[in-house]
C-alpha cells in the first residue's frame, strides 16, 4: 500500500537556522507535511462526506472512518472514489 511521499531531513541537518529559533526550511517543510498527513489521516464522517478528488488531499491507502458503516475505509485508487474496508471489499 502506498502513502504520502514524506522525506525525512538529513541526519545532520540543523533543526534551526543559525543563531535563531526559526526552524530550517528542510525541517519546516518536513513538519508541515507531517501535520497535513496527521490531519487527513484522522478524518471521519458519513459515506457522503468521504474525500473526493475535488475536496483536497488524497493518497492510496488514505484512511477515513465512515460513520455510516461504523468502520474505517481506505482509498484504493486516487484517480477514482473506490474505497475498501479492512478485508479489501469495496464499500
Mean pLDDT: 84
Tell me the radius of gyration.
Answer: 17 Å
The beta-strand count equals 4
The percentage helix is 10-25%
Poorly predicted parts: none
Number of helices: 1
Strand order of the largest sheet: 1-2-3-4
Distance between the termini: 18 Å
Strand content: 5-15%
Which structural class do you get from the secondary structure elements? alpha+beta
Main sheet overview? 4 strands, mixed
Which descriptor suits the 3D outline?
elongated
What sequence of helices (H) and strands (E) makes up the elements? Answer: HEEEE
What this model shows, in words?
The chain has a domain at 58-91. Helix content is 19%, strand content 14%. The longest helix is centred in the middle third of the chain and has 17 residues, at 25-41. The protein is built from one helix and four strands, in the order αββββ. It is an alpha+beta fold and 91 residues long. The chain has a four-stranded mixed beta sheet with strand order 1-2-3-4, with no helix packed on it. It has one helix spanning 25-41, and strands at residues 44-45, 63-66, 71-75, 83-84. A hairpin with a 4-residue loop joins strand 2 and strand 3. The model has no long low-confidence stretch (mean pLDDT 84).
Short description:
The chain is an alpha+beta fold. The chain has one helix spanning 25-41, and strands at 44-45, 63-66, 71-75, 83-84. The longest helix has 17 residues, at 25-41.
Per-chain topology:
Layout: H1 25-41, E1 44-45, E2 63-66, E3 71-75, E4 83-84
Parallel strand pairs: 1-2
Antiparallel strand pairs: 2-3, 3-4
